[in-house]
Amino acid sequence: MSDLQVVPGEMQPWTDRTDDRPALAALLADALPGDRRTLIVGPHSLPLISAVLDRTSDATILVRSVSDAEDLAAEFGDRLQVVAGALDGMASGPFEVVVAADGLDRVLGYDSGDLTWTERLQALTALAAPDAVVVLGLENEFSLVNLLDSRPADERHGDDEWRPLHNDSTRPVSVGQLESALPWTAHIYADFGSRTFVAADVAAAARPGELPTRLATDALDARDVPLLSPVADGVDSAARAGLLPAIPTGWIAIAGIRAAHDLYAQTGPAVLTADQVPDGWRTTIAASPAVDTTTPAFDAGVVPAEVPGGVSVESVLVRLAAAEDVPAFRKLAAELGEWAADSRIVLRWDDVVIDGDTFAHGVSPWVTAEPTGKADLLAAAWYRFHDRLVGGHRRHPWPPWMVGDDLVSTWMGMSGIELPESVQATSPDTPSASVAHVARGKELAAALADVLRTRDDEAVDLRTALADAEQARQELLELKGHVFGLERTLGFRNKAMKTRENRIRELRTQLQKVTADHNRIRGSRTYAISRVIFHAGQIRKPRVVARKLSRRLRKR
Amino acid sequence: MHHHNHYYGQAHILSRYAGLDFDHPPRLRGYLQHGWNIGCGWNPVHEFYDGAWRFTWSDAPRRRGHALGRRSYHSIGAPFLYLLELEQQEEPVEREGTLWFLFHGWEGGKIQGDHQRLIDEIRETEPGPVTFSLYYTEYERPEVRRYYEDAGFRVVSFGRRGFSYEGTDRRFLFKQLDELRRHKRVAANRLSTAIFYGVAAGCEPAVYGDPMEMEGENPLFGGQSRIERLWPEMLGTSIDLEAARATTDLELGKPWMMPPAEMRMLFDWRERV
Fold this sequence. Notes:
Chain A is built from 18 helices and 18 strands. Chain A is elongated. The two termini of chain B are 14 Å apart.
């Protein structure tokens, strides 16, 4: 264990929580120069510190918590000089590399002076050599997640905010302000939830449905913050406005050097990097780990080296559904059905990209162990889309009784997968034939949702909760309407039956009258004579009959 | 289901198309548009129960209904188009003359106009024999029917649309389609459902003559002048057939047609037959 140095402003007992942030580790590994005297300022996770130590043998870390400092000293031994205390208590320097990726919000103790963000930056600058490489993080108070945070201001403070950190007018809240505040020329990355980092100029050019926007949405969606409304809509709006770099959860400024790639994103157990090329994105992803037997499994090998720069199929389908343009939706679904094929890659429309007249897989690395049939893959893709469309309360033209397996089945039909034959319901809870039809796809979609789930708390945002309640009310209204309609139909049918009953009564009365007339006629003398004449007319041999009749009369 | 859904046997046609019983179609969970109009697909004072779904022929009535505060629409294509699919001609009949439709009244309103003047105009315009189609509301008015019989036209009527599930001629549209397929031209004194049906059935359309007045006509949607502004390509004695076909496809909702299995799900007919 290295000697632990303590400078003024240390905190004990105290610990600062850190997260792994593998995408940031990859970014640091790319950006940091080798073998320079390096200072890490503030709490950083072990993998991040390791990423720095991989680049230099002369590293010092400053953390305010004594217990954290002790743990770090125990973990890294002589490889890392550990200092416990506050930034304004640190006097040694200058350093050729300064890494403050956690920002400047956790670098002071409760005994430190009330330094503004700018004063803390000045303290940091004092530790850096004039031509130092500096990596500095900054939390964005104008972030979309912050704007949509459903908690009131008095409930947003943690234990470390013995002084409000954010009532500080010197804190930059935009890329421009950050660039102006820094004493160095810096290259800025937008930090989306510490999971996706996109170069600010690349983020500014990204539009809804494009790769940076899709990855930014996924990353922000993973944040464990109670929200007023879903982040996806806000991200899309910002992207349309060219303001994607304005709304991340934070920024990483890199001065003195440039990182190697435009985009770093945590994907499963690996980190995806991407660079913009004229037609799209050139990607790299860490090799697949040992054989993964879960379904879906992670396989970096299926991520294409080049991904088209187009928008996702999902973004177009959502737009067509909102416009109630079923013919165009049907046409796109049919084209997707023609394009899809048996594959190991789990199909998802939010990661299939429109590429001119055809489609291409995006960067999703999730696969099944064996190739899956086209029909099941389409069912999985449509099921995931269904959950995102209907669950997100997006506008669409399909009635509520179709929502669920029937709607997925319908979309599969549009994609060329023959729909199941109807089955006769034998009881009110007889399952629809669609249930079996989409079962495998539903399983796949659920399994994919599980591996993509990053939040422990699956509580929905306030707007969705209100919309759920409103939908329940609407469903009740429609069911009442349905009952009214059924009663009305019964009323009409009843009326029709009464009409028929009256007609039958009329016919019966007419029949009785005709029968009475008939009986009266049969009992009359005229009828009897007419019958005799009729029978007489039937006799073929009148002479023979007359002779027989005369013989009988004589015998009497 | 609302009893209007049975008008002209439309629900019966859709039921047959969906593979179900023609004579006794299952209940349709909502309202089915039963005629082309320039509004939301129904008459301006049509009542809808809360939460009802509305099945329009095409997207335009949906958009207009949306503007009236109504939701829950799904466009499906006119049942007549499904009938065309069901009743495909094996051997086309040689077409001759014009099937002429007089703008018709309904059970609640009779038409008023100068029939003799209309007859004169038809004689001047139509190159071949004329078959005159009257809705039963006019067909059963001898004073109206006689005008056209005396003019030497063959006068036909396709039956009643019915009311409260009573008196519906289920083969109304079958008879209309059969007549349309025998005629070269279809004409009317107002742009109306029959013109679109005629174009869909392969006739050359014409819309001319006194449009006549109907008692109690509600001009809420803009009336004849709006038709002239919106569909000028469908008016006149000689109409560009290609343009007419394109408009007809849109107004009858051809792109919105769907396969039988999808229709069974849409109408909640899947397992409740």
